[in-house]
Design a protein that fits this description.
The chain is mainly α. Helix content is about 95%, strand content about 0%.
Length: about 130
């Protein structure tokens, strides 16, 4: 009798395992069929979602790039203004130092050049007057 009970339990267990295996097999076939049928739809949906994400990131990238360019241009403008101011301060101080050392400035040299030109004109007039004299 023990053998009969044992065979009966083994038979029920074996049958249960077979049924489970068969159900798993059927679930696998169903999943495969579902993927085959809806795989292209899923692929197209994934492509569409990827395109949306790409567009959003592209727009964000373009916006960030424009903001960086704007800040760079503003910074470049401020740096140029600052450099011009530093250059002007340097030139002014250099003129002051040269003036203290007794060096003539541009206006002094211009005045001196005009006086030399006037002297040349007077010399030329005297030479012409002398040549015209007997």
């Amino acid at each position: 009798m023990v053998k009969k009970v044992k065979d009966n339990v083994d038979s029920q267990w074996s049958q249960s395992v077979q049924e489970s295996a068969h159900l798993i097999w059927l679930a696998g076939l169903g999943a495969s069929a579902k993927v085959s049928a809806e795989g292209s739809k899923l692929f197209e949906a994934l492509v569409a979602e990827g395109a949306k994400i790409e567009e959003r990131t592209r727009a964000a990238r373009v916006g960030a790039l424009a903001a960086v360019r704007e800040k760079t241009d503003a910074t470049r403008g401020r740096m140029t203004d600052a450099w011009d101011k530093v250059e002007q301060i340097f030139e002014d101080r250099l003129v002051q130092v040269l003036g203290r050392l007794g060096m003539p400035n541009r206006d002094d040299l211009l005045e001196l050049t005009q006086r030399v030109d006037a002297l040349h004109a007077q010399l030329d007039a005297l030479r012409k007057a002398r040549e015209g004299q007997p």
